[in-house]
């Protein structure tokens, strides 16, 4: 079975390195899947994108990425992310509370804008 050498690196750390059968990533041009023998390629990773690596042994690796690049040279794939976090590192409680905080902020902003419109229209 043909293999790829894959690396997933963020600015502050190496997240994963090893042999893989396929790597998929969301780029600004769309999703790309890289198999052994892929043509050389350089792509820009999508903000709020996902990278998936299927190791030749072990469980699938899934990471959320914020920008960066994907490079394919021969049978080597390098993902250089501005920021990346492995799926198993995500604290779902923290992420959900962040979503609720964002909802509250949007609601407060909408109410403030509506109050400003009412003030201006009553003049």
TrEMBL record:
Domain ATP synthase F1 complex delta/epsilon subunit N-terminal: 5-84
Pfam family for this entry, one: ATP-synt_DE_N
Record keywords, A-Z: ATP synthesis, Cell membrane, CF(1), Hydrogen ion transport, Ion transport, Membrane, Transport
Top-rank taxon, per record: Bacteria
Annotated InterPro entries: ATP_synth_F1_dsu/esu, ATP_synth_F1_dsu/esu_N, ATPsynth_dsu/esu_N
Membrane topology of the entry: Peripheral membrane protein
Keyword hit for DNA repair: no
Alphabetized GO MF terms: ATP binding; proton-transporting ATP synthase activity, rotational mechanism
Gene3D superfamilies on file: F0F1 ATP synthase delta/epsilon subunit, N-terminal
Predominant place of localization: membrane
GO cellular component: plasma membrane; proton-transporting ATP synthase complex
Cellular localisation: Cell membrane
Family indicated by similarity: Belongs to the ATPase epsilon chain family.
Physiological role: Produces ATP from ADP in the presence of a proton gradient across the membrane.
Subunit-structure text: F-type ATPases have 2 components, CF(1) - the catalytic core - and CF(0) - the membrane proton channel. CF(1) has five subunits: alpha(3), beta(3), gamma(1), delta(1), epsilon(1). CF(0) has three main subunits: a, b and c.
Name assigned to this protein: ATP synthase epsilon chain
Gene source species: Corynebacterium hadale
